[in-house]
Design a protein that fits this description.
The chain is of the alpha/beta class. The protein has four domains: 5-166 and 213-267, TIM Barrel; 297-319 and 321-395, Beta Barrel (Elongation Factor Tu (Ef-tu), domain 3); 416-516, no CATH class; 539-697 and 742-802, TIM Barrel (Alpha-Beta Barrel), CATH 3.20.20. The protein has 22 helices and 37 strands. The strands form five sheets. Strands 24, 25, 26, 27, 28, 29, 30, 35, 36 and 37 form a ten-stranded mixed beta sheet that branches. Strands 1-2-3-4-5-6-7-11 form an eight-stranded parallel beta barrel, surrounded by six helices. It starts with a strand and ends with a strand.
Amino acid sequence: MRIPELLAPVGSMDHLKVAINAGASSVYLSGKDYGARKYADNFTLDEIDAAVNMAHMHNVKVYVTVNTLIKEDELEDVMNYLSELYAMGVDAVLVQDLGLVDLINTHLPELKIHASTQMTAENQLKLNYIESKGIKRIVLPREMRKEEIEQLKTDMELEVFAHGALCYSYSGQCLMSSFKGGRSGNRGTCAQPCRQKYRIDGIKKEDNYLSPCDLSLFNRLKELAEMNISCIKIEGRMRNKEYLAIVISNYRKALNKLKSKKEMKSEEISLVFNRGFIEGQFNHQSRRSIRAGHVGLKIGQVIDAHKNQIAIKLNDSLKNIPEKGDGLLIVKNDKDYGFEISQNPTITTLNHFKKGKNKQIKDLNRKDRVFIVKKVWQNKKSDFDLNKGTVYLTKRNKLTKKVKEIENKGSSYVKSKLILTFSVKNKFPHLKGRLALANRKEIITEVRGNTPFEKPLKRSVDVDTIKKQLLKTDNYPYDITQININYDGTLFIPISKINELRRTLFKNLETEVINLYKHKTKKIKLEKTASNKTSDNANISYYTNNLNDLKNISGVKRVYLEIPNDNTSLDMKFEGNYNLNHMINFLKRAYEISYDKDYELIWKWPDIAHDNLIRTLNKVRGILNKMHYNIPIMSNAFNGEYGPYSMNITNSESVKSLRNYKILTLSPELDKKDYEDIITNCETPDKIELLVQGSVELMKSRYSLLNENELKKDYGNYLIDRKGNKYPIFKSISNEEIVIFNDEELSLIGEINYLKSIGYCNFSIDGRYKDENHYNLINIYKEALNGNVNEKELEKYSPKNTLGNY
């Protein structure tokens, strides 16, 4: 069993000190730009340099997030930023952008790359591609299950999220904030629309349908270690110091106990920010949070509430008994009531309480405890009956003291081992240090004092006195394991000179440690080799999952065909078997309909495809090939034939890096200037396709929208926001993912001739899940490409349109 690295989130220098003291083995942080948490405090370049120096002194690694999608006009700036990070000695950078990976390999080959979870590498095909790029570590999607992780084969290090917030959508696959709030999660500015309340068509009650409980794999650390996970990651760069100190220190203790094959429980991690905990998809768990904010530690249930008294039956296992000044939250149905305990509570037994004798007990750890708290005039009045409400401890004053202790500890998880050798040479004191770092590197340095030893007038400086002075570490993270003293104790020197000698050596060692990681900065200039190639042959592609469309479609270059799920229920239970006959017969029929058509038929695979589904899709493909039904594939596996917009391509370098693809669709998050910049610098403009019409996929999720009891109700396949906008929901062929589409269609019909004039030639229309006449948009766009734009005619088939980010 290998104990995984414990990776802590850091949003400021103060947070860095807390993370180091709490026991982190590594930290991740961001600069002011290019990080996926734009609204955290984040670090200036000087602060990153200071953070790297401090962390390396404490044998803590530093990873910098450069995990936003990079736009064309940012490429050179971000490369020079990375060059500065490399010079500072950062241990790795987290990257999402595929083009940036190739640029780093070309210009900064020694800089280690970790693939961000936003790459959405959920299957072996993607892992193989990422590993082929020389990437050292992959951060797996939070949606991966234990058995899926165990089946992965790679020499890369595997990193998994173990604690913190869960996004409803796969990371990197959410466009809801971008399209509905103008703030892109892929650009670090997510507005978190998932934490708002919505309705499901047919269910009147609003709820947190898109807000899962938080993740905690605290009780699964032994399994993670046995799976040879290299690193467990704690989420929370925007959380406070209390969260960081308590979560990291508890995970550190639990990991340390694994060394002696022991496990531990913790209530403390529930006392800092959480929306309730689940083990997520790792253990097939899906549950939405009861509220968007902090819930706390569940401590019991209200058994009596009247006038100014609340009686709570405490859970028998509870260790953290609330005290005066702590905060409580009572939740019942969709209402909650929070207050601070302003008087000393009474703790009695259930038996005493039933008899009306609320006698304070001495043994607070006994079972059947009843906690009685007084409501006083300072507490707001509850507007609902608190009886049978679930009670949570939301604030624990005792934690404040513990956090301060951690903050002021000045110690790290692994200290460097130091051997000191003191001697006198030609009457002058010499001190030599041999420092062994956690990375197995060794630094040796020595210093010579300027003041000589003399014959004593009264007392000599003995060996023990010198040893005592040398044992002082001056808050340096050194563990002095041995002191050798070559001195007979018969001479005199002021003690201050011994201390000065020690301080000089320690400072020199610090400088040596810091310099060990440094490199030279180099200025990077990116040469653009754009193609002058243009095409007058503008063409249209059409997405569909309707066989009837195939009969009626004409005048398009390509048809991307997706197999619809034959089960329209939003029940995401999956028994492990796919309907092979449905897939084969659907594609076989599609091929026969399209055989003599003038378009190329391309099978669009689901954007999210875990290995179990990949094996099935390949089986279907193999059967069809044997029957001589050869259909090309649209897949975002990073190494395919046709690439969908879910690949998040935002610059020409990403197009260049995906050289195996014939067609790649750019991200619909881009604006007009971005499209101009890309086509100007792209070597292969005829390889790029733009989505110009269609409902954009806002979210792809492996978390169920509905609870068991809700599945039995009469509902429609729409998510409805507070403005009444209806977002269509469909289930993937996988039976394990749902896709939420935008309520309005992206429509660039008024811009298509301009896009054509600057060099774009491939345009696509998404007609999936539309009515039977939607394919008429093809002729409207063909007319538009000939200069006849008719937006009124378009609105007959697509009445609700948007320019999106364009």
